[in-house]
What does this fold into?
Amino acid sequence: MMGQRRAWTGLALVVAVGCEGRFGHGERDVVAWVGEEPIRQAELEAYLADNLLAVEEGGSVGETDPAVASRLLDALVDQKLLLLEAQRTGIEVTDVEIAVYVGETDEGSGHVAPTAVDEARARQRLMIEKLQEHVLRSLPAPTAEEVSAWAAGEGARLLPGRPVELRALQLPAFDVARNVREEVRRGRLSFEEAIVAHEPSPGQTVSTRVSRDDLPPDVRQAIEGLETGGISEPVELHGRVYLFEILSWHQDPDAVAAEMRVLARQEAQGNLLRELRKRTEVRIRTSNLPFSYTP
It folds into this structure.
């Protein structure tokens, strides 16, 4: 709940600050223009204060890390872009939706009545959420073929708890392991041939299915990014040197599909903001900022 409050407090000030109009105070306190809409110092400072712990603990906005403050200003600009687009497309929010969002129920329920700032924040956030839902609604669900292909080929994007089937080959030294890996990588030797050539101990090359999260950290790092059939760099465990071969990655198709939808939503939201920035001129008034802005 605190995170939501912080993330959207800047929006709540759009009504309070934006209603002054473009020429309410001239431009002396404008830190950015988003199209024809200003972001004023009061709006930015309140947004930074709600998102920076140091300011909450008694520091000043001017003492914050300029890089961090710059990214927060960018985030505030993005929120303004989304809100303006929601307004442009005619998105509306009802009083009932606002009441539900702020937690207000029927009279006598014991809940504190929301303030005007609460209602403004709720209206603006709901408008942006409706805009994003409108954009995301058109995203197609991944097909079974796409899920299978993603699960098989996205070894670099390992999901938490993802099961992997692998086998290990113990070798006498790092230089021997590096040479074997290079021979296999170049196609001069198969992993099976390497097993035969180096006479492993009985059972050491038997395939094992295990959650990647249960593997030792060095092994997890060594197999990161490997696809099916990949051979790891040499790994030392308990004084012994191993190569690991990935036989297959496994994953619940529903979990893979859910992850694909998350990534697709993130991409769509990023594309929306990039398109809005192309269509809308954003001007940062660096001379009016209480920190050194870094693009």
Remarks:
- The chain has two domains: 2-138+264-288, 160-249.
